[in-house]
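In this supplementary section we document a worked example of the pipeline. Step one takes a protein sequence of length 217 as its only input; no multiple sequence alignment statistics are reported here. Step two produces a three-dimensional model, which step three serialises into structure tokens for compact storage. The input and output of this example are shown verbatim.
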Amino acid sequence: TKLEIFKTKKLKKGFSYEIPYNEKVEVIKDKIKDIEANLNGIKWKLEINNKLVEFESKILGSFNAINISLAIFQALKLGIDIEKIKEKVLSLEPVPHRLQKIEAGGKIIIDDSFNGNIEGMLSSYELVKQYNGRKVIVTPGIVEGSYEMNEKLAKKIDEIFDLVIITGEINKSILDKSILNSKKIILNDKKNLEKTLSEVTKSGDLILFSNDTPKYL
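The serialised model returned by step three reads:
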């Protein structure tokens, strides 16, 4: 459905990351350079008129450099000044529940609760991996995923997180069996999650809600 706009006769110009859907669509993949992503945001460069222009955003996730770049090229096409665009990019706020960073009680909370696909979840784990303090994850795994998917997810979790809080029944056995090094807590009833988090986490911890809605919602 999203791609139907590229097919309309009214289209004057379109931008795509890597697929040239038709002659009016410009591919920008090779114009995106030097992406740097950490828990403070993203920095990257765009090739614009044969010059590299640096952009910065507080939004988390290297993939968002691609999403924002597509919007940047659209804005340029509409005649918006490049310095104005840079200001707007820097002031962007994260989409709720999509790598949304929240600081509370000395803890860093990364709310990625609306991310339920394996590629996105693994990407968020690599981002969290950079954090020097204790890392905690709250997850039910991939609710509609296969055994193999959840096993792969569990092995990556085991590499990165110090404490794993497994919620729900669906993938409990797969995650429990595959996570061998990290400390684990299994919660069959999410009503106990808030109490559990208050008891087992402390100031300085990073808590990632991965495909699991945090209590504050």
